Amino acid sequence: MPPTLRTPRLLLDAYTPEDEESFVALFQDPRVSRWMGDGPAPEAEHRALFGRIFSKVYARDLFDVWAVRRGRLLVGHAEIKRTEEAGGHEIVYALAPEVWGSGLGTELADALARHGFETLALTEVHATVDAENTASLRLLGRIGFEHVRDVVEDDGGLTRVLTRRPRCSASGNTTGAGQNTRHGVLAAPRREGARARVPLRCVCRRRSPPWDE
């Protein structure tokens, strides 16, 4: 199960069975799903995906997957896992449109990166973003992510890979280093021809989820 994380306004904790309707509603929202993987999917597919969070990810302790809550409301989804395309651990998250424009995307992305450094003892954390999504690129840039390379997708689209490394303190020591307690797994390949596009407040690279097998 993932460790509980807190930011000034958000709580990240493990999903519970009671979260199913909110999870499905998040990914069934066309404003979210249009940017995710192959685009909109049937409701049954998202319900099956929710079940696999418990039967595969949590049961096998594969990597960290969180429900993102604000107060009592589930307002998003978050992950940190190892993916082939990023070449390391990648942050993945989506927020409900109702909370867009509030700065929660920046708050959440920063918390995920810090978790990678402070808990997983990573030396770098990655994000992948559609090259046309300048808003998300700016968001990540503000919290220390730098553009390192581009990936040409099957449809000719361009995806930017960004990387953030731990910052050094004035003494020269690297901050955000901790004990390596967990690790991710390789993400499953995206279906041929799919292109993940990332809107502002949904900084993620959702291909076929690694538990969607």
UniProtKB/TrEMBL annotation:
Pfam families: Acetyltransf_3. It comes from Streptomyces tuirus. GO terms for molecular function: acyltransferase activity, transferring groups other than amino-acyl groups. Gene3D superfamilies: 3.40.630.30. Residues 10-165 form the N-acetyltransferase domain. It comes from the Bacteria. The lineage of its organism: Bacteria, Bacillati, Actinomycetota, Actinomycetes, Kitasatosporales. This is GNAT family N-acetyltransferase.
